[in-house]
Specification:
elongated, 5-stranded antiparallel sheet, single chain, 151 residues, Immunoglobulin-like, alpha+beta
Amino acid sequence: MKKLIILSTICIAFVRCTVNEKPQFIGIENIKVLESTSKFVTFTADALFINPNDIGGELQTDDIKVFINDNEMASISTESFDVPAKKEFSIPLKTNIPTDSIFSNKSLGGLIGSLFSKKVKVQYKGDIKYKVLGFSYTYIIDKTEDVKIKF
């Protein structure tokens, strides 16, 4: 009898925990320069999500590429990130790029423009994967923004 009660409790708890839909990807926000030195420029961004489900899961970035002035400069891969249940959350995306590679643009016009305006075009492009209970979904990331650099 005890085993039947325990089994019933587990089944009811499992049925009540719903996975109605995948977490909603809101977008990439807060692309900015965290720090700039003569050697490196540290860029950060936040990937924003809302999870409407009763259970979490995990998200993992798979080689999100960082492009500066249309040139690939770095890639971001992180450890898997635990998704909280029924919450809005963000995943921090951070990368260090050598300063000399930012301003060694292949096109002379892009280099001169970046030096005078002290702005660079930053693009995050790649995939973030969501996994829960054997189910997975891939979010395609492609966000571009002009960011000002201070030396």
